[in-house]
Every structure is written in structure tokens, then in C-alpha cells.
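Reminder: ligand-aware prediction takes two inputs, not one.
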Amino acid sequence: MAKKLPTLDLFAHALRAKPTTSRKPSTKTEANAEQSAPDLQATMLWDKCLSIIKDNVASQVYKTWFEPITALRWQDSQLTIQVPSQFFYEWIEEHYYALLQKTIYQILGAKSKLQYQVLVNNNGETLEQRAIKLPAFRNAPTTSQSNQQSTLPFATATPIQQQYPNYLNSRYTFENFIRGESNQLASSAALAVAEAPGKTRFNPLFIYGGTGLGKTHLVQAIGNYITQNNPSSRVLYTNSERFTIEYVNAIQNNRVNEFTNFYRTIDVLIVDDIQFFSGKEKTQDNFFHTFNALYQAGKQLILTSDKPPKELVDVDDRLISRFQWGLTVDVQLPDYETRMAILQRKSMDEGFEIPTDIIEYIARHVFSSVRELEGSLISLIAKVSLDRRELTIDLAKEVVRGVSTPSNKNITIQDIIKEVSKHYDFSPDILAGKTRKHEVVLARQVAMYLAKKFTSLSLKNIGSYFGGRDHTTVLHSCQMIENYLGNDKSVVASIETLKRLFGRD
Ligand code: ADP
Ligand code: MG
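Here is what comes back for the chain with magnesium ion:
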């Protein structure tokens, strides 16, 4: 899509504000800083946007381009966010315009605007800022997102023709998926299913493999291919966590029938990461019936998991046997040639020419997943364009070291819950429970804070690990801990100990 920058009202406002160093204000002084003090509502709205963005970009992209943004104000349907530099702003607009547009539309509504403020100088005593005003939308976005109030896709879908968010991300296509020995079978099967959904023997199509190896990319590509070639086909991408949360909400709101009926209207149902159905018996039961109804109606089911069906833990045998009715296929670690091809293609897509010896160096040293490969490339590009570093083998070495040192190993929310409960001497289920005792509340807040900081889970997802608490509770917890970090030595000590445990000190 052509994403020319809109006409900017540059230097519309020259604002002066006190310097802020942290992303969110943690002390009163910062909170009082003129203009740069984020208001709570802006932060909450932006956090909602971030939880969508997080699900739609690679985690390294998220960390590099979205984490440094601060939400400043929400006023007159206009959300003001602060970005660190002009380059940063341009990069975001050029690469993530469509995603931002869709997200803002969904969270803030069609009439809202996004305003950027660019930090132009943060070396001196005072911080110059200038505001760039631009309409977030030149035209109303053409996505299928409809009701901005609702996060439940089925809430707006009573008449069959009605639109619903399909959660497809147009950045995942077959064209930009690099094929290699490691994903040959999976990608061929995916294409076959995309060309004739429900009509091949690959039903369900079950793709499994380690994290960052392209499962989500492939199944999203199927969805995008089908919606492009057959726009009337009802495709829905979801994951087992979202399905579970929606089901639980439906129970709480007496809307189980509506929920069930909505899923039965889908022609191509994609459920990502079904390993998280583990132990959720009632949800599994509902999914079992949905699966049967769709299967019998000749609809296509596409599933992914981190392990083959037989190895799924705490998943009903009836479901496991159904998962094996179609084709089960894995994606493996990419070999050297595929890694080279991926890096070459991605650097080309980013419009960045990288000398072959540097590409070779990265391909040789980063092999644990495509996500890490992508991560190294993005850090490299960020270092060159943001920090103005020279593109050399030494820089590549630095980047590769950053990606593969143990301190950058993925931390899971399970690790966090385990370590935090150990640290505070509670059993992990107490953290998920209802108790409001001060020490438990604190431990829970610490766990949520660390989960927000060190995992790529959205606020909503984090809440689901703590007895289904909602995203505002998680946000509040993170803010509480940030406040404590400014004035409570024991919390500071605990956080430091825990960070050290995770190799993030
Ligand atoms: P998974 O779902 O298996 O954890 P993803 O599909 O999220 O992995 O892939 C991680 C990142 O790597 C995504 O940005 C994806 O676009 C990219 N990726 C994975 N495999 C390939 C591939 N073969 N070609 C191009 N990009 C890939
Ligand atoms: Mg995935």
C-alpha cells in the first residue's frame, strides 16, 4: 500500500517541557512535568492499542518501535503520543501506518486523531518538543473491524452477513514466506488448503513446531489468501487464549449461545497455539462441538501448536483424535541456506542493503528461530539508522551477541509466576486467587509487572494468568510497582533480585 506521509503541520506547536527519562512517570515531579506528563486515560488507551499492536508485529519490532513511545494526552478525540525522533516517526508512519490506523480506529473510534510529538533534543536542561499534527486517517479505514466498543467478535455478528474482526494481519503472506527444506511440507499443505479450503484431505491442517518458526505466519497467510480470492468467505483467525477468554466472558454475560452460533458461521477457522487449551475443560468441550459442527459442514479447520497432537497435555482425547483426522505437519529450524534467503529477503523488504559478508555472519550465528533472525536484522537496522552506527562485521557481532546471550532467552510468564511465588513464599495458585492480603497483592503486582516487562504478552493475556483479571488491573499493578520503585526500598530489592534471577539485571 502506498503510504505517503500526510501533509504535516510541522512546528505547529513549540512546546517546552521538563526532561523525562522514564517512559512512564514514576514520581510526582515527573508526573507534574508540563506537557510531557502522560495522563492516565491516554496511557490506558494507548496500552489497549499496544496490546493489539503486540499481537500483530514481531516482538523485536514491538520492542524497537513501539515500546519507546509514550502516550501523553487524550483530549477532544485526539491521542497524543511522543516518539523519540523524527526518524522514528517517519519509520513508524512508513512501516506501520496501516496497522496504526486499524488499531486506532478499533480502539478510539472513527473520528479520532493521532498526534505525534517528536523529541528533538534531550541532551540539554530543557526539552524541546514540537508537535506534528496529522489526521490519523485520511479516509476511514477499509478493514472489517466494526464495533469499536466490543472486543468480542461475535458481539456484532448476529446477522450472518455482518462484519466482524477477523484478526488477520496483512503482513503475513505466502509471497513473503521463504520456503526451505525446514518448512517445505507445511508450506505446500498450507497453500493447498488456501486454494481449496474444506476440499482437501488436509482437514484439519495441524501445524506444529517450536516458537518463532513461522506457524502463525503460515496460517495467517492461508487466511489472507482466502479472503483475497474469495472475499465472501468468512475467515476467522484466533488463538486458544482469545477463544478461552471470549468463552469465559460469554458465560459471565449469559451469551454462550451467541458465542457458539457465531463460531458456526465461520467457513475457515484458524486457531493458533492450541497448546494453551491445556487444562481448560469447559472451553475444550465447547471447542469440540464447534470443531464437529464445522467439520461436518465441510468447513476448513486450521490449527497450530508447539507440539504434535499426541504430546498435548491435559487436552481431551476426543479432541486429540480429531486433530489427527487431517494432516499433521511440522516446521523445523531453518537450515543455513534458508536463513540466508530469509535475511536477504527481509533486508530487501526493509529497503536496507546489507553486504553479503554481514548477512552470512548473522545466518551462521543465529539459528534458533526465524524470529531471532528477524530480531537481529531489525536491531542491526535500528543501530545503523537510529544510533548512526557504521554497518560493519563488528556491529553484526554485537547484535548477534545481544540476541543469543542467555539473558535474552525468552522468559515465560510461567517462569515469572514460579519465581515470584518462591520469592514471596506463596504457592503459585495463591497469586491467581482472590485473596486481597497485602503481601499477596504485592507479590501479584510484582509478577504482573515483570510479565509486562519481560514477556511479549498483552495486558489482557497477562490478566488471564492471574485468575482472569482484566487488563486495567494489570495496568494498575504495573503503575503501582513503578511508584514503589521510586520510594520503597524493599520492593526495589525484590525486583532487583528477581531480575537477576532472570538474567536481566
Ligand atoms: P511461530 O508462530 O511459529 O512462533 P511466527 O509465524 O510468529 O512463528 O514467525 C516469527 C517471525 O518470523 C514472523 O515475523 C514471521 O513473519 C517470520 N518468519 C517465520 N518463518 C518465516 C519464513 N519462512 N519466511 C519469512 N518470514 C518468516
Ligand atoms: Mg505463533
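The first helix runs from residue 28 to 32. Confidence is low (pLDDT under 50) at residues 1-36, 121-162. We will return to this case in the review session.
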